[in-house]
Design a protein that fits this description.
6-stranded antiparallel sheet; single chain; 22% strand; 17 strands; 5 domains; alpha+beta
Length: 507
Amino acid sequence: MPLNLEEILALSDIGQKINYLKKGRKTELPDCCKLWDDWNPERHEIMVDKKKYPDRKVLEKEAEKHFDEKTGKTYEIEAKYKTEPVNRISIPLEQDIVNIQTAFTVGTEPSMDCTPTDDDEKKLLDAVKAVFKSNKIKYQNKKIVRAWLSEQEAAEYWYVTDDDSFWAKFWKKIKTSFGGKVKPTKKLKSVLWSPFRGDKLYPFFNDEGKMIAFSREYKKKLMDDSEVICFMTITDKMVYQWDLSKGYEERTPFAHGFPKLPVLYAYRPEPYCKKIKTFRVRLEKLLSNYADCIDYHFFPILELIGEVIGFTGKTKDRMVKLEGEGAGARYLTWNQVPDTVKFEAETLTNMAYDMSNTPRISFETLKGVGKASGTAFRFMFMGAHMAVENHGEVIGEFLQRRVNFIVSALGSINPTEFSKASQTIDIETELVPYMIDDLNDKVTTAVSAVSGGVWSRREGIMFAGNADRVEEAVSYTHLRAHETGRNLVCRLLLEKKKMKNEKKNKN
C-alpha cells in the first residue's frame, strides 16, 4: 500500500525518505543539459559536433616520388594536408522567440481587479502592491515566464525575513518609547528556482492531483570551494533539510509560519521552441555552408589558355603574351545564383516564427508598416496574443495563486490588521498582452462610447488609460460651462498628459 506524505516524513531511513519524496513527482525531470544546449548558441551542434560538421582537410603539398642514388630505389613522399576551420554560424533563434513571447505575456504588468468594500480591504490591497514592489515582481514575472518557456518548469518560494532597515528600527524605537502600538516588522521575500539555476524540482502531488509538498535538490558551495548536495522539502507547515554529501545529515526542521504551501510551481511538458528546432538546425547548416562557398569563390581564378611567351608594359598597363590555338585568358567566376539560398533561409525563418505565433520585431519587418494605427498593430500581433491566451492556462493560474498566497500570508503575519480582510477580499489577476497603443484611437473610441451613452464616464476614462486616477477623474460630477461628456474625457486625458510631462521634467 502506498505511503502518504506524513508516513514518508516519519521514516527513519533518510535515503528511503528522499527516494519516496522524489517519486511524488508525476512527470519526468527536464533534461537540463539538452535544454541548455538548445538555448545557448555556443552549444549548438554546428559549433561542437566536429564529427557531423568536420573541419576542412586541405592539401598543402602533393605526394612526390624521390629517387635515392645510394640505394638506387624510388620511394614516395606522402602528401601533406592541413586542417582549416569551416564557418560555423549559430543562431539564437530559441532565445529570440522566447524573449518576444515573454515580453508579450508579462511585458505589460498583469492587471489586478479589486473593489475594496471597506478600509481594511483597501489597506490589504495596498499591502499586496507593496509586497509586489519590494520584491520587484514585474521583473520576476519575466524570469518566471522565460524559465517556464525554455526550461519547462519554474518555482517561486516565499519566506519571511525581519525588516532590519534603519527606518523600521527607528519607528519601532520611537513608538515603543511613547507607548505606541508597534506593527510586526516582517517582510515577505521570494526566490526563483529553475533547472538552469542548478535546481532539480520535485513537486509532490496526491491522488487528486493537488500539490501538497515540494522538494528541491541543489548544490551549495562552501567557503573552501567544496560543494555539498542539499535536499529540502516544504510542506504546508514545515521546512525539512538534509545534506546528502555528508551521509544524509539532517538539519533542524522549522515551521515557515504560513497557512498555505509557500511554493508556486509552473510546468510544461516540453520547451516552447521544440517544434522549431529542425528549422534552426537546417538554417545554421545552410548559412554555414554558404559562407564556406563565398570564402572559396571570393577571389576569382585567372585561367590562361595557350603558351606564355612574355610580358609587356609596367604595372597598370602590364599584359601577358599568349600564343597557340585558342589562346586567351579569362576569370573563373561562381555562376551559382544565391536566390535559392536566400529563399530557403527566409522560408525557414518565417516558418519558425509563424509556427510559434511570434511576430518578427525588426526594422526590416516594420519599416513597411508606416504610421499604423493601434488597430493595425492588433492584427499584426494577433498570433502573439493568441499564444498569450494559451500561456494563461498555466501562467495566469500561477499569478492568481501567488496573489491568493500573499493575501493569506499577510493575514498570518499581521493578524490584527489583515486577518479579517484576508478572508473577505477578492483580488483577480489577469494577463494583459503587450500592445503598441495608439492614443488617438483610444481617445476617439472612449469619447464616442461616452457621448453615445454606451459607456459611463468611468468606463471611458479607464479605457483611455487613466485608470490610476479614475476615482479622482470621476469625482468631476459637474461640467464646466457648455462642456459635454465628450469634452470632459478629452480634458481629463490632456491633464494626464500634462502631469506626465511635468513628472518627466522633474526627473
